[in-house]
Amino acid sequence: MKKIILATAAATLLASTAMTVQAAPAKAATCVGCHGADGNSMVPNFPKIAGQHAAYLEKQLKDFRDGFRKDATMVPFAKGLTDEEIKELAAFYAAQTAK
Ligand code: HEC
């Protein structure tokens, strides 16, 4: 009995971990309009960010936020992000497939 309960608990834990990895971070809701739901933007002026390296995405977002990279459109969306949110966003878009 104990084993079954443990196995069920482990399976539930695995399932919820898998879900959190795939779900878009909350902040991604603000990026959808320009970069698409999975980072494949439909409009050429908005770069595709799907499948780019997480370290690259993280650096670009921090550069926008901290004033090292300038773009009147993109900067306001990077401004409010914490390091943790940037890490989550970078990991999410890096895990998407570029189309
Ligand atoms: C209103 C449109 C808009 C929104 C909303 C927006 N972006 Fe952008 N984003 C842009 C534009 C335009 C650029 C290109 C800037 C440039 O040319 O330097 C860009 C560039 C980027 C880049 C750099 C890509 C590269 O190839 O170097 C990243 C990463 C990025 N955005 C992530 C995000 C994230 C994450 C969000 C949500 C928090 C977001 N963007 C919201 C318009 C937007």
Automatic annotation (TrEMBL):
Domain Cytochrome c: 18-97
Keyword Metal-binding carried by entry: yes
Gene3D superfamilies: Cytochrome c-like domain
Classification via InterPro entries: Cyt_c-like_dom, Cyt_c-like_dom_sf, Cytochrome_c_Oxidase_Subunit
Species for this entry: Thiomicrorhabdus marina
UniProt name for this protein: Cytochrome c
Keywords on record: Electron transport, Heme, Iron, Metal-binding, Signal, Transport
Family annotation (PANTHER family): CBB3-TYPE CYTOCHROME C OXIDASE SUBUNIT FIXP (PTHR33751), CYTOCHROME C4 (PTHR33751:SF9)
